[in-house]
Description:
- This protein is an alpha+beta fold.
- The protein folds into three domains: about 40-160, TIM Barrel (Alpha-Beta Barrel), CATH 3.20.20.190; about 175-215 and about 355-415, no CATH class; about 230-355, Immunoglobulin-like.
- It has eleven helices and 16 strands.
- It has helices at about 15-25, 35-40, 55-60, 70-90, 110-115, 130-135, 195-200, 220-225, 360-370, 370-385, 400-415, and strands at about 45, 65-70, 95, 120, 160, 170, 175-180, 210-215, 230-240, 250-260, 265-270, 290-295, 300-305, 310-320, 325-330, 345-355.
- The protein has a four-stranded parallel beta sheet with strand order 1-2-3-4. The chain has a four-stranded antiparallel beta sheet with strand order 12-9-16-15, with no helix packed on it. It has a four-stranded antiparallel beta sheet with strand order 11-10-13-14.
- α9 packs across α10 and α9 (about 360-370) packs antiparallel against α11 (about 400-415).
- The radius of gyration is 32 Å and the shape is elongated.
- The relative contact order is 0.09.
- InterPro entries: C2_dom, C2_domain_sf, PI-PLC_fam, PLC-like_Pdiesterase_TIM-brl, PLipase_C_Pinositol-sp_Y.
- It comes from Ancylostoma caninum.
Amino acid sequence: MAGSPPVLAFPVLTKEEEERIFAEYHYTGATTNIHPLLSSLINYTHPVKFSGFDVAEGNNLHFHMSSFSESTGLGYLKQCAPEFVNYNKRQLSRIYPKGARVDSSNFLPQIFWNAGCQMVALNFQTPDVYMQLNMGKFEYNAGSGYLLKPDFMRRPDRTFDPFSESPVDGVIAAHCSVRNQFLFGAHKSVWGRSCRWLEFSSAINLAQITAVIIMLSRSYSDLLERMDDNYHNCFVKVISGQFLTDRKVGTYVEVEMYGLPTDTIRKEHRTKVIAANGLNPVYAEAPFVFRKVVLPELAVLRFAVYDENGKQLGQRILPLDGLQAGYRHISLRSDTNQTMVLSPTLFVHIVIKTYVPDELSGLVDALADPRAYLSEQKKRQEALAHMGVDDSDIVEVCGLWECLGSIFLFRFLRHFWGAGAVL
């Protein structure tokens, strides 16, 4: 029979030895000493209590950063949104959820992104729609976590109000571009003074105009309201889905837009439920129209697929300014923005156009496609022949480009300023 294992003997310290060991021990701390110059390179920001936009502007210290609760930030946006935007041009702001969100729910971060807030803190443990927006937006720029704000949200000489339908304020210098000819002769300009429509039109030889593009000196907000060159129309047609789920359930698709308050459209565009088909449903419906998108640089599209019981099967967030038009397959992500096993996709058709007022849409179409305009002329000629008018009795009063140029110029200026108004 084998003997029992030996018992390890530990030395027993006397009371005097224990006291000597504790007396010789010296606690050096959890961190080591750092040279002040090295520490100044690491600490880029200095947290301070917010004392008002005027105080922050007076101090003009870009490394000062203040934190705002969700409710406080909304209050400042309601009372002084342009000042909040200017504050974020100079220094950093951080928004955090209000303390009442004990269920770890989230708020819509787009509201504060519109004001240029750099750090919008969310509860990452809750993958709701608002968290999906955050993950989808910062997926771009190689997932670095940094996105450059639009130019006018960084320049001190621009004023931006996220609640306005004409967000950028400023003055655009008068500009007139005419192909193959100067409007007022060789390098002659009358932009330094006002002129009336008759004086303006008499200075232009319409017979030589091939295309006319006019930008007249007005405030940019008025220019956007009247001309709408910076607005966009977005048409999204959901054609079909592929491998949405391995269950035999009905499915439908929602398409939403988040951006400025005037651009945000939620819970309005959804397809019908295609029953008992999660493999390859076909959604044969008219396109969803997002008309007059004021600021595409801040807008994102959200595609979400649900089953007939309202459970989300997949989603994807795409920035509007990076969206490619045409027929596209959009790969869907999970609630946490991860790729999925079935690799579900949506087959969609996307059309993005510059916004044109209804009264000018026909004219712009004619300028964009002169052949279509020629076909209209031919139809009119055939209609006149049907009425017994011979071709030899018709006098060609102007060529195609002459007619289009003069019509465009007259209608545009009439729409922009009104008939007989002073330019």
